[in-house]
Write a structure and sequence with these properties.
Layout: H1 15-19, H2 26-44, H3 49-53, H4 55-64, E1 71-74, H5 81-89, H6 124-138, E2 144-149, H7 156-165, E3 172-178, H8 189-199, H9 201-216, H10 220-231, H11 239-243, E4 247-253, H12 257-268, E5 273-279, H13 287-291, E6 302-303, E7 308-309, H14 319-333, E8 337-341, H15 351-356, E9 361-363, H16 368-380, E10 384-390, H17 391-394, H18 398-406, E11 413-417, H19 434-439, E12 445-447, H20 452-464, E13 469-472, E14 496-499, E15 505-509, H21 513-516, H22 518-524, E16 527-530, E17 533-535, H23 539-548, E18 551-559, H24 564-574, E19 581-586, H25 596-602, H26 607-626
Parallel strand pairs: 1-2, 2-3, 3-5, 4-5, 8-9, 8-10, 10-11, 11-13, 12-13, 15-16, 15-18, 18-19
Antiparallel strand pairs: 6-7, 12-17, 14-16
Helix pairs in contact: 2-4, 4-12, 6-7, 9-10, 14-20, 16-18
The structure holds thiamine diphosphate.
C-alpha cells in the first residue's frame, strides 16, 4: 500500500523496483527518502547527518548497479540508513538499534544487500578487493563497489588496501564520499590537501569546464583521457590515486543525481581499479544538521520542525565526562601530560580539553595504531601521553600496545572508554574483550573503577605510576559517587574489601559490577571484594579469601574466557587452592544491539540475572560440594 506522504518511496520494496523507474523520477525518490530519514530518525534517534549526505549516492548506486548480485560495500555503515530503506527494510528502520530491531550497521545476517559486516571503519576497500578477487577467480562478471568516507580514508588499513588493489588487475570501484568531516572536523595532511585543492579557484573553474566536457563526451574514460594533460600534476586531487594504480575520476557533485547516474554508468563498464571522488555535504537537506554536523552525527530523538534534540535527563556525569574533567585537571597539574584521540573527541569527553589545551591535544584521525605508537614515542622523550580510546577500537592497536608500549615499559596511560556492553551500537562496538587481552601483557597495570571517584583516582594513579597503565570504564553514568577534587594515587595491586560475610561465600566483582553485587552480598551474607586491579592481582588478599571461604564467585563485564575470573582462578590454583568457582561474565557469543540494560540482560549481567545465578549456584551444588 502506498503512503501518501511518500508516494514513490512506499512503493519501492527492493532495488529492482527502483530500477524499474524512469531516471526522471529519481530526484523525487531522493526527496522522499531524505524526508523519510528525517521523519523516522527524529522519532527514535540514530546516525543521521552522514545518511542525509549519501541519499543521492545510494539511489544512484542501486539504480545503476545490479545489487545484490553486484557487491556494494559500505565503510563503517553509519551512512547506510538510506541503503537499508531502499533494500526492503523501510518500515523496520524505526526499530534500528533497538533490541531485536534492525542492526545499527550493515550486517550480513540481516540482508543479502549487506555484503559485508561493518561498524569499525576503513575495512571497505580490503573487503571489496577480496570480493573482486573471488569474482575473478570464479569467473563471475559481477561489479564490486566500496564506498568510503574521507574520515575512514585516514586509516592505515584503507591505504594498505589501496596499495594492494592498485597493483592488481582486478575490476573494482572505490568511491570516496568526501564531506570534509569525520565525526568532528576531519584532520590530517591528506584532508587538508583535498580541502585546499577543492576550494582553489583554479580547480573550481576546471571543474566547471570538465562538467561541460562531460556533457559532450560519450564516456568518462574519454573524459579522463582528454582532460589528463591539463589537469594531472597541476591541481587534480586524484594524482596520488593515479600514482597508486587507480583510474581517478572526479570530483563529482554527490547531490546531482543526473551526474552521478551518468558517471556510474560509464564507470560500470570500465576494467581495472577505478576511483570516483564524490563531494557531499554531511547533513544535506536538513538545515540544523548542515549547520552543525557534529551535533547531528548521532542525535537522540528530536523535534523535526524546530531542530530541538530532546535531552535525556542525566542524573550525573558520564564516565567520559569524568575522564574529560580529570584530563583538564591533570594537564594543569603536570605540564608533561598530553591527550591523544583517534577521531573521537566528542565521544571520549575531550571537547573542553581540546579548547583549553590546543597545543597538547592530538586528534590523529581514525588511526588507533598510530595513536598508540605515537604515545610510545612521546613517552620516550619526557611527555606523559594519555590515549583515550574505546575498548573495541583498541583491538585495532593490539600489537602497538604490546610491542611499542608495554615491552618497552613506557609510561603511557590508556583511558579505555565503552569497556563492557555499549548498547545500541551493537556487536561491533561491545567492549567485551579488553580485560582478557590486556591482562596477559607483561608490565601493564590494568584497573577497573567501581564508581566515578575511583575512575578519577585510578587515572591519576596511572600517570603517577610511571608505567604503562590502563583504566577501563563503561559507557554512560556510574552509580553516582561524586569525584573528589583531590587526587591521590591508589596502592598498586590492592583490592578493596567492601563487606566481610559469614556465610563462607566470597563475591569478587570488577568495575561496574561491584555496585551490582552489593544487595546480593547482603542477602547471602557474603564477603564482597572490589578487585580494582585486574593486573597486578592482590594475591595476598586472594589467598586470605581462599583460606577463609568455601566458594568464590567472580563477576565482570568482560568475556568469561580469559578474564579477571580466570586470573583469580589461575592465581589461587597456583597457591594450591581448589575451592568451587562460579565465573560470571559475558558468555561465549556475540551480544547484539539493544539498550545497555538489554545487552546486560542478554549477557546475564543485569542485577536480577546475577542474583539468581549466584543464589542458585550457592544454594544447591556449590554449597553441597563445599561442605
Ligand atoms: C576503527 C574505528 N574507529 C573509530 C570509529 C568511530 N567512527 C564512526 S564514524 C567515524 C567518522 C567517519 O568519517 P567519514 O568516513 O568521513 O564518514 P562521514 O561520517 O563523514 O560520512 C568515526 C571516527 C569507528 N567506527 N571505527
Amino acid at each position: 500500500m502506498t503512503n501518501p506522504a511518500y508516494p514513490l518511496l512506499s512503493a519501492l520494496n527492493s532495488p529492482a523496483d527502483l530500477r524499474a523507474l524512469p531516471a526522471a523520477q529519481l530526484d523525487d525518490v531522493a526527496t522522499e527518502l531524505r524526508q523519510y530519514l528525517i521523519d523516522t530518525v527524529s522519532q527514535m534517534g540514530g546516525h543521521f547527518a552522514a545518511g542525509l549526505g549519501t541519499v543521492e549516492l545510494t539511489v544512484a548506486l542501486h539504480y545503476v548497479f545490479d545489487t545484490p548480485e553486484d557487491r556494494l560495500v559500505w565503510d563503517v555503515g553509519h551512512q547506510a540508513y538510506p541503503h537499508k530503506v531502499l533494500t526492503g527494510r523501510r518500515e523496520k528502520l524505526r526499530t534500528i538499534k533497538l533490541k531485536d530491531g534492525l542492526a545499527p550497521f550493515p550486517t550480513r545476517s540481516e540482508s543479502e544487500y549487506d555484503t559485508f559486516g561493518v561498524g569499525h571503519s576503513s575495512t571497505s576497500i580490503s573487503a571489496a578487493l577480496g570480493m573482486a578477487i573471488a569474482a575473478q577467480r570464479s569467473g563471475h562478471k559481477r561489479r564490486v563497489v566500496a564506498v568510503i568516507g574521507d574520515g575512514a580514508l585516514s586509516a592505515g588499513m584503507a591505504f594498505e588496501a589501496l596499495n594492494h588493489a592498485g597493483s592488481l588487475d582486478v575490476d573494482m570501484l572505490v568511491i570516496l564520499n568526501d564531506n570534509d568531516m569525520s565525526i568532528s572536523e576531519n584532520v590530517g595532511a591528506f584532508s587538508n590537501y583535498f580541502a585546499r585543492v577543492l576550494s582553489g579557484k583554479l580547480y573550481a573553474s576546471l571543474r566547471e569546464g570538465s562538467k561541460k566536457v562531460l556533457k559532450r563526451m560519450p564516456t568518462v574514460w574519454e573524459l579522463a583521457r582528454r582532460s589528463e594533460e591539463h589537469m594531472k600534476g597541476m591541481v587534480l586531487p586524484g594524482t596520488i590515486f593515479e600514482e597508486m594504480g587507480f583510474n581517478y575520476i572526479g570530483p563529482v557533485d554527490g547531490h546531482d543525481l543526473g551526474a552521478l547516474v551518468a558517471t556510474l554508468k560509464n564507470l560500470r563498464d570500465l576494467r581495472g581499479p577505478q576511483f570516483l571522488h564524490v563531494i557531499t555535504r554531511k547533513g544535506k537537506g536538513y538545515a540544523p544538521a548542515e549547520a552543525d554536523p557534529i551535533k547531528w552525527h548521532g542525535p537522540g530523538p528530536f523535534d523535526a520542525k524546530s531542530g530541538e534534540i530532546f535531552k535525556e535527563k542525566a542524573t550525573g556525569p558520564s564516565y567520559s565526562q569524568i575522564f574529560g574533567q580529570w584530563l583538564c585537571d591533570m594537564a594543569e597539574l603536570d605540564s608533561r601530560v598530553v591527550g591523544i584521540t583517534p577521531a573521537m573527541r566528542e565521544g571520549s569527553g575531550m571537547v573542553e580539553y581540546s579548547r583549553r589545551f590546543p597545543e597538547r591535544y592530538f586528534d590523529v584521525a581514525i588511526a588507533e595504531q598510530h595513536a598508540v605508537t605515537l604515545a610510545g614515542g612521546m613517552a620516550c622523550d619526557g611527555l606523559r601521553p594519555v590515549v583515550a580510546i574505546y575498548s573495541s577500537f583498541l583491538q585495532r592497536a593490539y600489537d602497538q600496545l604490546v610491542h611499542d608500549v608495554a615491552l618497552q615499559n613506557l609510561p603511557v596511560t590508556f583511558a579505555v572508554d565503552r569497556a563492557g556492553l555499549v548498547g545500541g551500537d551493537g556487536a561491533t562496538h561491545q567492549g567485551s574483550y579488553d580485560l582478557s587481552f590486556l591482562r596477559c601483557i607483561p608490565n601493564l597495570i590494568v584497573m577497573a573503577p567501581a564508581n566515578e571517584n575511583e575512575c578519577r583516582q585510578m587515572l591519576f594513579t596511572a600517570v603517577e605510576s610511571e608505567r604503562p597503565a590502563v583504566v577501563r570504564y563503561p559507557r554512560g553514568q556510574g552509580p553516582g559517587v561524586a569525584a573528589e577534587k583531590n587526587m591521590r594515587a591508589l596502592p598498586i595491586g590492592k583490592a578493596q574489601s567492601m563487606r566481610e560475610g559469614r556465610s563462607g561465600l566470597a563475591i569478587i566483582a570488577v568495575g561496574a559490577m561491584v555496585p551490582f553485587c552489593a544487595r546480593l552480598a547482603d542477602q547471602l551474607d557474603a564477603t564482597l571484594i572490589n578487585l580494582r586491579f585486574v593486573k597486578p592481582l592482590d594475591e595476598e588478599l586472594l589467598v586470605r579469601i581462599a583460606s577463609t571461604h568455601r566458594a568464590i564467585v567472580t563477576v565482570e563485564e568482560n568475556v568469561v574466557a580469559g578474564g579477571a575470573g580466570s586470573a583469580i582462578a589461575e592465581c589461587l590454583s597456583a597457591h594450591g587452592y581448589t575451592l568451587p568457582f562460579l565465573h560470571l561474565g559475558i558468555p561465549d557469543r556475540f551480544i547484539e544491539h539493544g539498550s545497555r540494560s538489554d545487552c546486560l540482560a542478554a549477557a546475564g549481567l543485569d542485577i536480577p540475572s546475577i542474583e539468581s545465578a549466584v543464589t542458585r549456584w550457592w544454594h544447591v551444588p556449590a554449597k553441597a560440594a563445599a561442605r
